[in-house]
Amino acid sequence: MRRRHLLAGLASAGALGGAGVVASGSAPAVLGSGDAPESVEPTTLTTIDAPGSRDGEVTLPAPDRPTFVDFFGTWCPPCAEQMPALAEAHDRIGDEVSFVSVTTEDVGGAVSEETVADWWREHDGDWLVAADVTAELAARLGVGGYPSARAVDASGRVRWSTSGTHTAAEFVAGIERALDR
Fold it and tell me: b/e per residue, 62-101, with b = 16+ CB within 10 A?
């Protein structure tokens, strides 16, 4: 009976580890580098007129430029909680990358652009914000929960992938991976 429990535990650990590799888009360094992840095909999104943002479009990941994408929802309390850390990370390193927050909410439909702009203002957002209403970019980047973030290098490869809330230092360290530091 103990052997069966041990084998079941090992199988569970293997399944969870494999799921982590799939979710992050790359194997941990301790497992070897293997092939580099494939480049993510860029997606053009509509931007939202809000503080630090503008009305128009943005292509993500940015062509030939490192890109940091934060996925959030106006309905998501942890997304609001981490806004100060994102603001600090943006202040520290934002000019070196295309720094963008993206919502997959139905902006222009069930959620007004004004609702997103008001949420952005209330949480001191001061960088580009965009809407991925079809969730095409989120699907390409393997986003499964909110908040989530991806740091993509200039060739379009995801170099850091995470979900949940983080500190500014953790965001900066992830972005630096996309900058090859």
Answer: beeebbbbbbbbbebeebbebbebbbbbbeebbeebbbbb
